[in-house]
Amino acid sequence: MVVSKAWTLRQHFQGFPKASDFHLREETLPQPKNGQVLLEAVFLSVDPYMRPYSQTMMKEGDVMIGSQVAKVIQSYNPSFPVGCHVVSDCGWRSHWVCDGAELTPVLPDWPQDIPLSLALGAIGMPGLTALYGLEEVCEIKKGETLLVNAAAGAVGSVVGQIAKIKGCRVVGCAGTDTKVSYLKELGFDQVFNYKTATSLEESLREAAPHGYDCYFENVGGKFSSVVMPQMREYGRIAVCGSISMYNDTTPQTGILLSKTNKMFVLILQGKLRCNEHITSGFNNMPAAFMGMLQGDNIGKAVVKV
Ligand SMILES: NC(=O)C1=CN([C@@H]2O[C@H](COP(=O)(O)OP(=O)(O)OC[C@H]3O[C@@H](n4cnc5c(N)ncnc54)[C@H](OP(=O)(O)O)[C@@H]3O)[C@@H](O)[C@H]2O)C=CC1
Ligand SMILES: CCCCCC(=O)/C=C/[C@@H]1[C@@H](C/C=C\CCCC(=O)O)[C@@H](O)C[C@H]1O
Fold first, then answer.
1. Counts for the chain of helices (H) and strands (E), in that order
2. Which end of the chain is more exposed for a tag (fewer CB within 10 A), N or C?
3. What architecture is domain 2-114+275-304?
């Protein structure tokens, strides 16, 4: 018998999440049956969507939603032998029994030099979101000017680097001077701290006097209203997220939305840098989640068990 730890939503968040909104419970798992596996969490993801989706998809008492990289530690399913790694959407749990239908195997040819945690970051959902938004939504072209906000985060940092690789001029905004320096190191052309800028409108205009061809929107709310008039004719906007609104108790005006090998190659060639903000310990899941929402992370926020 394995006793699993699980973080539940004790009560729905009101505004910014608090430590007392979470509850750590223990649950005894059943012995896996034929076709099933027992998973042990190795890295867990904390992502912005957990805040708005907790409101719409979860009841109080439910285990927090989320993905993790887990190791198979017992197996009665030949597709997932003991020792292999998978991505599972089983939530904030240390262990879980399930069948293979819900699991994505970590590729058997995963390069040794690339940390498995990137399956939750640049090689996973955030990285592929960045690539999809740039290529399929913005259809970005060489020579164009792109704006990305939350630029030092999991999605934003990949967006800016891919756009540079494609020969674009990239403007990024982030919330600390350390993030600004990091983005300059990554090769962004113009970067500013939106929290200390005297005027967001002027900083955006100074960074791109002829306006923006593409806008990769991660923040929403007032930020997007300021960007709109600075879009060029035939400009394209990938509305990816609206983190500035996720903790609102009263609605603001503004937008609210409801190729893996390629990424390996770019990382191994040193063209795509993937910083991670790693918090240690399953017990620190709520702190890691709240830290990410308030901007503590440079790159992808993950928890290492
Ligand atoms: N549509 C889709 O499929 C997906 C959408 N997303 C969206 O992309 C966005 C970024 O996600 P992700 O890269 O995972 O997260 P990040 O790693 O970027 O972490 C969140 C960051 O958001 C910034 N932030 C927090 N509050 C505000 C605010 N009020 N105004 C501006 N910035 C703020 C903080 O950085 P700072 O210090 O710069 O403020 C923080 O570090 C989110 O909106 C998310 O919902 C993500 C994945 C998939
Ligand atoms: C108003 C919320 C906008 C959030 C944008 C965002 O960050 C989206 C991220 C998703 C993420 C969602 C994860 C779980 C929810 C499952 C929804 C369901 O119908 O089952 C991930 O699935 C991929 C991103 O697109």
1. 8, 14
2. N
3. Alpha-Beta Complex (3.90)
- The ligand that comes nearest to the alpha carbon of residue 67 is 2
Rounded distance, CA 280 to CA 178, Å? 22
Task: Please tell me the predicted confidence (pLDDT) of residue 255.
Answer: 54
Q: Which residue has the tokens 């530690």?
A: 73
For the complex shown, is ipTM > 0.90?
yes
What number is the average pLDDT over the span 134-159? 98
Q: How many angstroms separate the alpha carbon of residue 129 from the centre of ligand 2? A: 11
Which phi and psi angles does 16 have, rounded to 5°? -65, 135
Q: pLDDT tens, 173-213?
A: 999 999 999 999 999 999 999 999 999 999 999 999 999 99
In the chain, where are the structural domains located? 2-114+275-304, 125-268
Which residue's alpha carbon is nearest to atom 46 within ligand 1?
A: 126
Over the stretch 252-293, which tens digit does the pLDDT of each residue have? 665 555 456 778 889 999 999 999 999 999 999 999 999 999
Top pLDDT among 223 and 256 is at 223
CA of 294 to the centre of ligand 2 (A): 19
Q: Which amino acid is at 141?
A: K
Closest residue CA from atom 9 of ligand 2? 49
From the CB of 174, is ligand 1 less than 6 Å away? yes
User: Cα of 241 to ligand 2 centre, how many Å?
Assistant: 10
Q: Which CA distances in Å does 171 have to 95, 122, 209, 266?
A: 42, 20, 12, 21
- The residues near 32 (Cβ < 8 Å, ≥ 6 apart) are 38, 74, 75, 76, 97
pLDDT at 247 over 70: yes
